[in-house]
Amino acid sequence: MSEYILEAENLNFSYMDGTVALKNLSLKFEKGKKFGVVGNNGAGKSTLFLHFNGVHRPEKGKIIYKGASVNYNSKSLKELRKNVGIVFQDPDSQLFSASVYQDVSFGPVNMGWPEEKIRTKVEQALKRTGTWDFKDKPTHFLSHGQKKRVAIAGILAMEPEVIFLDEPTAGLDPYYCAEMMQLLDDFNQTGATLILSSHDLNEIYAWADYIFVMNKGEIIAEGLPEEIFRNAQVLRKANLRKPWVLDVFDELVKNKAIKEETPIPRKKEQLMSLFSQLQVLDRLN
């Protein structure tokens, strides 16, 4: 039986200017899984994320954490935010301390951990995100990509059960994009639940266990990545494009180069392996 760590039930939310951001939105996140939330700009992804650690409070509906509705008093919100972390799309909205080390240690210090544990967790987070070498540097001197990694380090240092990441690889070069996705995989292996939004559909397709598609404040589809990204109607409605690995695979099936029951590749390496098998078969024939 599935264990859901976070749920949204009939969320409704509008901004002060009257913009309707979420409309009767419901979804569930299963514990320990990797989720992708996709949709075009203005779909409501960032607004949804900010509901899950109490930054926004729904006008109607509720957030459920470990089976209990979120209570919005200060004690309950503090406990929630210890366990549910958010990495914002713009790192400048998250970094405020004088140095990188101070910024990453802010959360652990406020959790009341012993000094030795704080040092250990901060050092681990800095090294895992490749930010250790500039730990003493002022945050305002960092590049956008460096700031992004420091913001993620600050969340990782607190070891939350759930992390929401809003466009975590935006502004990173290809090397650090790959490093970041591997880092998130590693953290997931410790049992953490990860929810990621991204406009890079190739990245989401290769990484996520399950996909939610948002459009105009609503969930219009959910399912396995290969199911969602093969649904032309959903892609059209949400202004999304099929990931290239899946596109190439479907062309091979369409042209009868491979059988329809061939396992669907999720990553480039899996597709290349499939090409290698086809070349071997051609030589044998």
TrEMBL record:
Main location: membrane
Gene3D superfamilies documented for this protein: P-loop containing nucleotide triphosphate hydrolases
MF annotations from Gene Ontology: ATP binding
Location of this chain's protein in the cell: Cell membrane
Location of the ABC transporter domain: 6-241
Membrane-related topology note: Peripheral membrane protein
Keywords: ATP-binding, Cell membrane, Membrane, Nucleotide-binding, Translocase, Transport
Protein name: ABC transporter ATP-binding protein
